[in-house]
Design goal:
Elements (H helix, E strand, L loop, with lengths): L8 E5 L4 H12 L3 E6 L2 H15 L3 E5 L5 H13 L3 E6 L14 H29 L3 E5 L12 H21 L5 E5 L8 H4 L15 H13 L4 E2 L6 H13 L11 H7 L1
Parallel strand pairs: 1-2, 1-4, 2-3, 4-5, 5-6, 6-7
């Protein structure tokens, strides 16, 4: 057994740059072998060659456009069939920066296809494979905008709220089977996502933009601490716990036989 066998292989989407590439480096440092997924094969090859040379890990690549159903199916098949895969970092995503009313409907559909449909297909495939083996870690990368829909394009923040919701539901389902689920909610992070969305990140206040390496280090520290929801910028996890506890406290009252009294008064 070599030093990497114990960790297994981490499959990382959006791995050619930004958050995905930073996860690849950090996980290689931790002894994971890697399966890097992105559209740009040349960039993937560059990242893979560097990580092999620097860390001595096995690095495989898979070129796939996760807005294309057949490419998603190829990644799903690998997740389902490769028993060495012990972690999925479900990171690939895009943003639309215009207001919802000004957005191109086709651009919104492509974003939803990647941020929601592909993320779901991969998460479900990983969940099934990991549950069968009673081990594994699923990391879904969402956004702090999941908690602040008023601040950006509502469809984008909606896709990230979906990822948060999906992750919390999967955690409840998978924890008894020995599978870890973490969802990461970064704030503004210095990556190419902004330029691709037509936003000059230099126009954002410097105090709210985190460097990508620091964000990923914080996310992995949150994983080590056993967090299900990690918000890298949040000073006190107690604030999230309070918000989540308030949400859970509503559960007994959101589905009842009769409408709330205030609605009866309004109708009268």
């Amino acid at each position: 057994m070599n030093k990497h066998d114990k960790q297994g292989t981490a499959l990382i989407t959006g791995a050619s740059t930004g958050i995905g590439a930073a996860y690849a480096e950090r996980l290689a440092q931790r002894g994971f072998d890697l399966l890097l997924v992105a559209r740009d094969q040349a960039r993937l090859d560059d990242v893979a060659a560097r990580l092999r040379a620097e860390f001595g890990v096995s690095v495989d690549t898979l070129s796939a456009d996760l807005t294309v159903a057949t490419d998603v199916a190829r990644v799903v098949q690998r997740l389902s069939s490769d028993s060495s895969i012990s972690m999925l970092v479900n990171n690939a995503g895009v943003a639309v920066s215009t207001s919802l009313l000004d957005s191109d409907p086709d651009a919104l559909e492509r974003m939803i296809s990647l941020n929601v449909l592909a993320v779901t297909r991969l998460a479900v495939a990983a969940a099934g494979a990991f549950a069968t083996r009673e081990r594994g870690t699923l990391i879904n990368v969402a956004s702090a905008l999941a908690l602040a829909p008023e601040l950006f394009n509502g469809a984008y923040s909606g896709t990230k709220a979906y990822v948060l919701n999906l992750s919390q539901a999967l955690d409840k389902e998978l924890a008894p089977k020995g599978v870890r689920v973490q969802v990461v909610l970064p704030g503004a992070t210095r990556t190419e996502l902004w330029a691709r969305a037509g936003v000059d990140i230099a126009n954002l206040p410097a105090a709210m933009v985190m460097e990508v390496g620091e964000m990923v280090d914080a996310a992995l520290a949150g994983l080590d601490l056993g967090e299900t929801v990690t918000i890298p910028s949040l000073p006190e996890i107690a604030d999230w716990n309070t918000l989540n506890a308030t949400r859970l406290s509503l559960t007994p009252r959101i589905s009842l036989q009769h409408a709330a009294a205030r609605y009866g008064k309004a109708a009268a």
